[in-house]
Amino acid sequence: MMKKIALFAFAMSAAFSSAFAAGSCTVNISTNNLEFTGNQVKPTVKKVICGNDEFFESDFTKITYGKNINAGSDAGSVTVTLSNGDVATKTFEITPKGVHIVIDDVEKELGGKTPDLTWTIGEDSEMSTLNADTLDNFTSALNKNLKLVVAEGEEEVGAKFKISKDPSVNLTELFPNYDFLIDPASMVIIKTKINIVVTSTAKVYGESDPKDFKYDIVGNITAADYEKLGKITLARAEGENAGSYKISVSIDGTEYSDKPPKITGCEPAYCKETADYYIYAVSGTFVVQPAAATVTVDNVSKTYGEATPAFTYKATGLVGTDELKDVSLTCAKCSSTDLESVGEYAISASVNVKSNPNYKVTTKSGTLTVKKKAVTVNVDEAEKTYGDKDPKFTFTADGLVKGESLSGATLTRAEGEDVGKYKVSVDFAEGSNSNYTLTVVPGYLTITKKDVTLKVTNITKKFGEKDPELAYTVDGIVTLGGVQDELKGVALMREAGEDAGEYAITASVDEKSNPNYVVSTEDGKLTITANNDKIVVTVKGHTELLQYDGKEHTVKGFDISANSEAYSLKFVEYTGDSVVSGKDVGKYTMGLSASAFKNTSVNYTNVTFNITDGALQIDPRSLVVTAKADTITFGDEIPAEFTWFADSLLEGDELDNIHVTLNKSGLLDAGEYALTFDQKNPTNSNYTVTKYVANALTVKPKVVTVTVQDTSKFYSEADPEKYTYKVEGLLEGDELPELVLKRQEGENVLLDDETYAISATFAKEEPSKNYSVKIRQGEFTIKPCTQRITVAIYGENIVAKYNDGEEITVNKSFDVSPMRIPGEPWLPEEFAYKKEFVSYKGEMTMTEKELGDYPMGLVASDFVNISPNFENINFVVTIDGSFKITDQETSIAGVKGVKTFGLSAGNRSIQVSGSTVGKQFAVLDLQGRVVRKGVVESSNFEIPVPNTGIYMVRIGTSAQRVRVK
Q1: d(CA 838, CA 817)
Q2: How far is CA 668 from CA 500, 694, 725, in A?
Q3: CA-CA distance, 71 to 68, in Å (whole number)?
Q4: Tens of pLDDT along 450-480?
């Protein structure tokens, strides 16, 4: 290939040296790259020769280039405009990009499926000189169009078949900008490779080993042929302390080691060879996990100021007579003087991990509780007179620690200013005396009575008038908060008599009603004078305004009053009849007159009567007459008669000459039709019709039911080609417009008996307004896949830097991938089993502190399927993870964030970047099989793989995981 590229360069130089500009001028150019790159080629113009004249860069006024991209003769051009106006043009050739295609050798197991045929672009193709977009487009199109074929022939172990380009594909026509050199490869027929993969497992220190160790047989073999492999036995290395122990494989009594990455063929120490198979052993790991133990620190307590008691603990979870070593108890915040404040103080425990390798010890802290000290606070007694200000309140305290006093005190008393005893309390600010429990003994403030004098007020009235209101004043009364007190229970009484003269007014005070005072009284007097005022008596007969209600009504009596309160109406005598009755509409009067009233008082002779007659007024009853609405369903007959009602018509009364009509006939479409009055002539005078309210006949749409039929499928299957439904309720001859059925999106099995809805909608035309279509959705059920699916568990490698013996805790990590097992289905990628479907119930973290490589101890029984889409998942731990603590720079590629080379993937190939030339590389699938191997020849290269999925890429001693889609 390199020789061919050199020939390309020679051809381009010859093209330049023989090219001339148009006319008599020659354009001399120089360039180092005239090979197709996808970029525009712009060679430098050194000079232009026209006859005997030479022109250089300072003589050029303009240089323009053609498109200068695609390969071909005269594909490029450059035009130079000289300062004298002459124009010279030169054309040149752009050669195709040389591409070296290397087809990969493959192996095919006898009787097995032909593996995917792959190829790579050799590094001597120098694809890095293509611009990014051109390279992407070229590699994408080449992946799509380059097809490989295998030569035909009879297959037998050791036979080789040539792999070459499909001759029906003309790459030169498809890619005119490239010159292809394709190296063929070989497909070698080999015996079937069988891996006996031991399932890693674990137990807890102190427990018994499982009864049997498990293994899986992976390869192109059926269960019926397992006996051809020989008798398979498993055994683990001895040891009961916490750690990892190898589970080895023996076949017919011979133990086989795991196959090293560089071993090829079937070497006796690593492989058993039969007539049909190469049989390899993949050992497992048996992990004795530390037993869980708990150190629980005991709780202790003391009262504030006392000495701190000794700390103790209890240990649980130990095996047999084991005891924990190097256990220490500390209280970080306890005082060295034993004078801790009230509260809780953590007592922590620490256990030396190195001294107890068989246990993973969990510590539970205890608590030192410091309780409060009891103190009694006594509030002192106090006294004052009602109305005076409060004295200053004080208190004493008993039980304080020597040298301490209480702070934040606030003294308050019960509200009230009346005579009596009031509780005086003391409160302390929150947190001011946190080391004490305070018991408060309240004191009392005593308030004594105040002396006052009540004086009765003198009053006067005319003969015949009512007594004026009796009154009094009080000397010495107390004012509190701006409000003056009033005496309660005060009774004033005057001496009897209504003749002119003076009458004594005396006072009495209820002592119990005035507990705050001692009251003394002084009497007053009432003086009566003669009265000659004119008296006018007003009489108003009762009246009532009613609306007709069909009943007999009666109005009785009158109201009487005088213009002077001194005149008593008992002196008025009435001799008439004050009653009026009626039923029908009209006005009825009572007939009151002044001649029927007489004054009988001898002390009042100037009395006159002012009369207003009483009456009963009955008005007509108002009515609203409303046509009754009616309803039928589309297709029903029109009612023969329509009715009406009056909102206030009394029982037994009648209205005539009223009628409702509908001006329609025949089959009516859905909608509303007016009901109107064609007669409005009632004759009953006790009623007035204020309004006639029209109404409507409503023709309702006929209900039609569309029922979508229920259906189902299993997870990953295709939906049925169409969904079905039935229609009920249409009139004969009618049809519904076209319906479109669509189910709710989703491909997962739903929980709690939920289903996906199958809905129906009208495609274009809506149904007739005469029908109301009720659509009952169907239920689409996706049932879980019941077939057995085998899923590989792939543990990851975690590396941490040694930290001077400090404990390092990391989370276990893993990935999953479905395994191709004969007889088990292989689901499309969108339905394939994923990591989020797995719940790991084992211990999620690892804690170590010493240098070493610690296995994760992943076991299949700790993995649980949580996806409702599957019912029969078989987990197989293919690769156990590890946790390594090292004092070297971490460089194992399996550690997240610490990589010695980069990986990316696409189109069933793995792109490697930043690798070291000369190191061995290998690509393994999740079953541990090597699918590609070789020597790194360039820091950046590509590795084709046969299928999508997860692969482990190893370069030298470093490894990295990648998912190929």
Answers
A1: 11
A2: 98, 19, 30
A3: 8
A4: 899 999 999 998 777 788 999 999 998 998 8
Domains of the chain listed by start with CATH number: 2-95 (no CATH), 98-190 (3.10.430), 192-288 (no CATH), 291-371 (2.60.40.10), 373-448 (2.60.40), 450-457+468-524 (no CATH), 535-619 (3.10.430), 621-700 (3.10.430), 702-783 (2.60.40), 891-965 (2.60.40.1220)
Burial class (CB in 10 A: 0-12, 13-18, 19+), 431: exposed
Cβ neighbours of 368 (radius 10 Å) = 21
Is the separation of the CB atoms in 494 and 502 below 8 Å? Answer: no
- In this predicted model, what pLDDT tens digit does every residue of 150-193 receive, in sequence order? 998 888 888 899 999 998 999 988 999 999 999 999 999 888 88
Instruction: Report the C-alpha gap between 91 and 65 in whole angstroms.
Output: 10
β-pair partners for 384: 447
Question: If DSSP codes are grouped into helix, strand and coil, which group holds residue 732?
Answer: coil
State the Cα–Cα distance between residues 209 and 237, nearest whole angstrom. Answer: 12
Strand pairing category for 359-364 and 291-297: parallel
DSSP 837: G
Three-state secondary-structure class, residue 830:
helix
- Smallest CA-to-CA distance from 70 within 98, 29, 37 is with 37
What DSSP string describes 399-463? Answer: SPPTT----SEEEEE-S--SSEEEEEEEEE-TTTTTTEEEEEE-EEEEEE-EEEEEEEPPEEEET
- Rounded Cα–Cα distance for residues 250 and 402 (Å): 83
Angle formed at CA 780 by CA 774 and CA 783, multiple of 5 degrees: 160
Q: In 10 A of CB 11, how many CB atoms? A: 12
Residue 29: half-sphere exposure toward Cβ, Cα within 13 Å: 32
The C-alpha atoms of residue 270 and residue 261 are separated, in whole angstroms, by 11
Cα 336 to Cα 754: distance, rounded to the nearest angstrom: 65
> Mind listing the pLDDT tens digit for each residue in 82-108?
988 889 898 888 889 899 999 999 988
- Placement of tokens 């087809």 in the chain: 103
Neighbours of 646 (CB within 10 A): 17
CA dist., res. 601 & res. 572, Å (int):
8
Q: What's the whole-number mean pLDDT along residues 436-441?
A: 91
Do the bridges between strand 702-708 and strand 771-776 make them parallel or antiparallel, or are there none, so unpaired?
Answer: parallel
Torsions phi, psi for 141 (to 5 deg): -70, -35
